[in-house]
Every structure is written in structure tokens, then in C-alpha cells.
Write a sequence for this structure.
């Protein structure tokens, strides 16, 4: 008895992709933990607890940082994990921070939710481009601002705004208008081609590795001891540094070799600027409409040739 399945033309059997249990369980456990904190941030924001809603986004970002490294370390990465990670990130760093911002400043505004929609759209497009370009591969830079960074900036602003320093020095500024500008700038940076550095690798063998280890240790100590003072300013500094570095080095003038959102290579362009596309419609037409080329019969050697047609009189 034949097993059900798909077949290629010609009778060849098409095997369905098989997912190993280890591929799903280990890295995806951290990814689902990311989803848990993203959903809990939405619940906390709906209840009015915006401080813990911001910290839940931070917890989600930590798990998002871990799951990719676990997948590479255990060699259990897969396209399934990459797609799952992007779907979860869209909630944890797109929808949840936008909802926190909506509850903080735009709940009473009639059309304030459109700004949140613009931000979520930028995050979703950023994640789709990431899957096309860099998912599952070792990276030296992120192509555009990472979505966890932008999500944590919006989420940790309210905890930072409750510090004594903010209340004494910065509370008088028009923060609703400032956060509108910040959200628009983050949306643009998410879709930009600005390279942002990844988390540096640590090592005990090289000076650079030891420096990275020391720098990360200081960051962890500050994040644990003074989280309200650390996360929002540090993330804003990271975002501003990447933008300023690109402006100084002129990296914004470099165009990508091909559109990362397209799956095929770019079409050839002639000197006039018009695109040249070779399309054979016989490949897409139904079978009954396809025209078959008729082969001309070959003449045998020594075969008699037909009578020549008389020439027309001048």
C-alpha cells in the first residue's frame, strides 16, 4: 500500500521536510519565553502598570538575545526557528511597545493610534527583511536598527521618566511631542540601511575580547543595580552612535547591490535606463495553448529537388 504524499512530475516522490525534536524544543523554548513576556507586557499595560510593562519587554529582549546563540551553539537552527522568532518579535517589540506608547500619550488622541500603526508596520517590514538577508547566519552588523532596540527604547522611557533626575531636570520638556518625533525616527531607522554593530564577542585570548568582556560586565552591573537610569539612555546612545557613525563615514551614500526584499536577481538595464526583461509566455500558458515548434524535414542526400519557381518578368 502506497503512503500518501506528494509526487513530482514523472512519478518521483516528494519528501516532506522533517523537523527534529531537538530543533524545536531547545531554541524555541527561549523564543516562546520571549512571547510570554511580550504578552504579559500587553496585559500589564492594559492594567495601567506601565513600569513593569517596560521591564517585561526588556526580559523578552534578553531571551531573544539568548535563543539565537543557543541555536548556533547547539547547531539546532532551522528555518522554522527563524520564522517563529520573527513572528514573536513582531509582538514583543512591535505591538507591545506601541501599545505602551498608546496608553502613555495617545489614548485620548483621536488619531494617535495611527502613529503606533506606523511603528508596528516598520517593525514587521524590518523583520521580513532580516529573514531574507541575515536570518540564521553569523553577522558583523545589523542592516538597520534592530527591532529589540527600538522596542526597548519605547518601553523603558516611562521607567526612566519616574526617576528623580528626570523629574528635576527634564520633566518640563514637551514629552508627548518629543515621543512622536522619537517614534517616527525609530520607524525610519528600522527601515534604513544603516549598519548597527551586534553584541561583541568575548574572549580570554585577545585584548579585544578582554575589553569586550570588561565592557559587557560593567553594563550588566549597571543594568542590575540602576536599571531605570541605564536602559533608556544606553539604548538612545547606541541608536545615536550608529546614526552619527554612518553620517561621518558616508555609509548612507552606499546603495545595496540588490533589493533585499526581492527573491530574484535584478533585471538588466540598458543604457537608456529601460528595464530589459526576457519573458517566455509559453512557460506560463496552459498546455493546450502552447505552440510547439515544428521541425523542418531534413533532405536526404541525393534527393530530387522540386522545380524552381520561375522568375517574374522585369
Amino acid at each position: 500500500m502506497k503512503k500518501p504524499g506528494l509526487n513530482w512530475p514523472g512519478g518521483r516522490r516528494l519528501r516532506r521536510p522533517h523537523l527534529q525534536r531537538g530543533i524545536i524544543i531547545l531554541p524555541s523554548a527561549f523564543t516562546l519565553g520571549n512571547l510570554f513576556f511580550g504578552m504579559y507586557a500587553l496585559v500589564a499595560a492594559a492594567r495601567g502598570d506601565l513600569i513593569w510593562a517596560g521591564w517585561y519587554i526588556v526580559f523578552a529582549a534578553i531571551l531573544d538575545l539568548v535563543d539565537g546563540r543557543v541555536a548556533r551553539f547547539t547547531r539546532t537552527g532551522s528555518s522554522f526557528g527563524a520564522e517563529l522568532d520573527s513572528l514573536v518579535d513582531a509582538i514583543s517589540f512591535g505591538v507591545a511597545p506601541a501599545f505602551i506608547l498608546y496608553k502613555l500619550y495617545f489614548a485620548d488622541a483621536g488619531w494617535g493610534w495611527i502613529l503606533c500603526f506606523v511603528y508596528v508596520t516598520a517593525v514587521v517590514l524590518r523583520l521580513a527583511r532580516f529573514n531574507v538577508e541575515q536570518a540564521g547566519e553569523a553577522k558583523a552588523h545589523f542592516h538597520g536598527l534592530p527591532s529589540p532596540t527600538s522596542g526597548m527604547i519605547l518601553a523603558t522611557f516611562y521607567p526612566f521618566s519616574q526617576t528623580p533626575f528626570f523629574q528635576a531636570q527634564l520633566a518640563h520638556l514637551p514629552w508627548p511631542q518629543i515621543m512622536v518625533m522619537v517614534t517616527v525616527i525609530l520607524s525610519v531607522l528600522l527601515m534604513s540601511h544603516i549598519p548597527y554593530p551586534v553584541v561583541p564577542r568575548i574572549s580570554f585570548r585577545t585584548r579585544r575580547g578582554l575589553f569586550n568582556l570588561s565592557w559587557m560586565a560593567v553594563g550588566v552591573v549597571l543594568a542590575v543595580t540602576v536599571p531605570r537610569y541605564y536602559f533608556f539612555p544606553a539604548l538612545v546612545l547606541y541608536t545615536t552612535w550608529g546614526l552619527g557613525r554612518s553620517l561621518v563615514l558616508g555609509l548612507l551614500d552606499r546603495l545595496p547591490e540588490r533589493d533585499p526584499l526581492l527573491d530574484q536577481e535584478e533585471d538588466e538595464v540598458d543604457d537608456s535606463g529601460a528595464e530589459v526583461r526576457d519573458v517566455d509566455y509559453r512557460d506560463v500558458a496552459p498546455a493546450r495553448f502552447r505552440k510547439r515548434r515544428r521541425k523542418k524535414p531534413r533532405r536526404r542526400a541525393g534527393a530530387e529537388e522540386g522545380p524552381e519557381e520561375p522568375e517574374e518578368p522585369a
Remarks:
- The beta strands are 6-7, 13-14, 141-143, 195-197, 268-269, 275-276.
